[in-house]
Amino acid sequence: MIETNLSLAPHNERDLILEYLAPEKTADAVKLLAKSKGSVHVLAGGSDLLVRMKGGYVEPDVIIDIKRIKAMQDIKKGATGFSIGAAVSCAKMGEHKALRKAWPGVVEAANLIGSDQIQGRCTIAGNLCNASPAADSVPALIAAKAVAVIKGPKGTRRVAIEDIATAPGKTCLKKGEIVESIQLPKRAAKMADAYLRFTPRTEMDIAVVSAAVNLTLGPRGVITHARVALGAVAPTAVLVPEATKILKGGKLDDEKLEALAEICNAACRPIDDKRGTIEFRTHVAGVLATRAARLAYTRAGGKL
Amino acid sequence: MSVLVSSTINGDNIEFACEPDETLLDALRDRVGMTGVKEGCGTGDCGACSITLDGALVCSCLVLGAEAEGRSIETVEGMSDGNTLHPLQQKFLEHAALQCGICTPGFLIAAKSLLEKNADPSEEEVRYALAGNLCRCTGYDKIVRAVLDAAKQMRKA
Fold first, then answer.
1. Whether ipTM exceeds 0.90
2. Structure pTM?
3. How far are the Cα atoms of A42, B74, B95 from residue B90, in angstroms, in the given order?
4. Shortest alpha-carbon distance between residue B56 and chain A (Å)
């Protein structure tokens, strides 16, 4: 046993009224969220929250750690698809063979977030609720038609991923509400997804533009269903509904790819900043969408 | 109000008290005296504070001390077997894979975590696995060679 220093000098200059709570049930988390006053923050992986605390951007009065909640700790495969608990780390998603096989695009998006150190902590529910327009996992979840299961004082509601973020850093979650899990639909043969992003560096960077494509093929490589989503080109990640119409019916040929790029360009409302200009982001969104479409198509067994 | 935390650190049961918003990095350094855990950026970018938490490689600057309750932590202090250095530590010395040394504990913990999952990594895999650790002295090449050499030795053992 090593002797420890139990002295409790105030750790920083601010008045320490912060409460750290670690409930074991979703219902208890909901109660705590509903009754807590002041700045209340949910702690999943902490890879956004602790950075914002360190920078002084947030000063929580209450932190509710969800990692002890049983219902949020596992990846479950059921009759309707996969359920990914809100406290499941992205590293765990990468280690899950069946999930990787069914949803390669979602898993590769989740695994692009940060280093191995960050992967050990970060979660897709946290990525979603942090509501960054550049969140890597969000376009892939939108393309996958994933749903967030939200528990709150008034019960459970299920919300499409594209409806969660309402603006940068803002979500549709109301006081007392928490995402318990993210549900991915069931998969069959000839279905696949892909996610690609552009970053100036090969690793450890934030998406300047990203695209996710999810395809279902019928006989002879004909696309029977498609969903396309873009990241970092608007205040929130966006679903491109028109892309579904373009891709559906027929094989993935040059004509479809060209139309896909055009419709993705048209869906962009990006900002101009040091990481990418409006023109660049708009152009690259189309390029990445076509590349992701080709990747998803071949993964689903289609021949280009 | 302070939080009393009971954890297993490098195999020892250790109790410490910390503030609710205190990072595990600060608690390990200031409360427990584990100063092998280094602070670089404090925002999860540099990996100098790398530890394992219940076997998962994490940046201790992005973990609250309070979160460590009941969990198992490994730091660089637990790497050697008494006076016998871990093969990674030995190879870092032999290859001169450090200069100022601030990043070294983090690199050692991250490299150990990699070799536990992958005993025979390629150079590219080593570089990817260590992408979360920054070093401003070595240019990384010596670190990568040391890890590959340690892996080779550990496979023989």
1. yes
2. 0.94
3. 42, 19, 9
4. 6
